[in-house]
Amino acid sequence: MKENTFLLIGPFRQLITMADLPDKGALTDDLLQPVIEAGILMEDEKIYKVGIFSELIKEAQTLHAAIIQLNEDVVAIPGFIDAHTHICFAGSRANDYAMRNAGKSYLEIAAAGGGIWDTVQHTRKASMEELAALTLQHANRHLQEGITTIEVKSGYGLSAAAELKILKAIKKAAEQTPADLIPTCLAAHILPKDYNGTHEDYLQEISHQLFPMIIEEQLTTRIDAFIEEGAFAAEQITPYFTKAKELGFHLTVHADQFHPSGSAVAVQFAAVSADHLEASGEKEIQLLAKSNVVPIALPGASIGLGVAFAPARRLLDAGASLAIASDWNPGSAPMGDLLTQAAILGTFEKLSNAEVLAGITYRAANALQCSDRGKIQQGLLADFIVFPTNNYQEILYQQGRLKPTQVWKRGKLINDYLNPSSTENNRAYFASSRLSGNYSSNNNSLIQP
């Protein structure tokens, strides 16, 4: 006998689906159109139907669906997507932070033994298993905050062997967390200090040695490069990206962080995204707006470095898309709190709730070419999160203080990964092979078919 695979949950005081919104350009909050007293009917890991909870009950009963009836003020929105992180690393750069706040420059910090190279040394020393455990720890912290899909870069190995180890660690971590980890190879991060050749020699070595191993072991389909003074120049990256494209990789670029330097390359190679953009000028903004490249703002790096934010408002007004990511890394963006950073970016760049939420849901999904998520919509993955409020505006208004009390990933409730303090009043655990834990809330009720 086939196991019942349908589950209905609701009513949500508001349900923000993010459905039918444009992929590019400015958004106003009236476009969100919350569904009131809504329900989500799931089949296995996908959304079967969305609508008014009371109207879905009859269909759910016909399907012999289990029904979770919520008797409290809650809002549901799509699971967050962090499209740019560096969470596979070892070591700490707390001393860099102190030196930076004391007025030391990047070069002075590097000369004192800090900077990216410090993280490279710690990461090289760590075993693959140790890196996988650290990545898993970071991913599950993200999961606690409602981030159900996480892009994870390599880039702290800076040799073919070390980069391969990092990508294997990301793969191992991905097998142990409910979150989806999207790996990216960032071997073109900086020229390693212990490399004796030129930038061109290093990139050629990586493309000839590492790329075939990545393909053979199916470790990633994505290649990134840091185009910036002190990292790699556009003309150095051109043959590297050309080789990557020939092999079928999708490209993304660390662009325009300190100087207008990489967005033109992103457009030239039809990259899926151009990330950072703090130094993008009008020329770069217009170039990105006329392309299909998704600009990704990284407010965590601006906060960590004390520099200006990416010109998010101008990008949107020019007709570009905009994703927002945490850039969680040990150096410039150690906070890793996507919701807080996105809310702060919205404050400084005068973004609507719709623009910020789009940036951490479906537009972030577009940046990762994950068309099966980012919206609460029929046929897409049942990735959504639930907040203890009756007004979706509270989510960004509270700038990260309001935490999700339910996280649903691929149709499964994964509250076992949440901070117990955040779920004290709403532990929606449900005894089923589809869900983690036990359903035992005083406020909510489970109706078996």
UniProtKB/TrEMBL annotation:
Gene3D superfamilies, per the entry: Metal-dependent hydrolases, Urease, subunit C, domain 1
InterPro entries, per the entry: Amidohydro-rel, HutI, Metal-dep_hydrolase_composite, Metal_Hydrolase
Gene Ontology molecular function, alphabetical: imidazolonepropionase activity; metal ion binding
GO BP terms in the entry: L-histidine catabolic process to glutamate and formamide
Family annotation (Pfam families): Amidohydro_1
The organism's place on the tree of life at top rank: Bacteria
Segments forming domain Amidohydrolase-related: 76-413
Protein name stated in the entry: Imidazolonepropionase
Protein's organism: Ilyomonas limi
Taxonomic path: Bacteria, Pseudomonadati, Bacteroidota, Chitinophagia, Chitinophagales
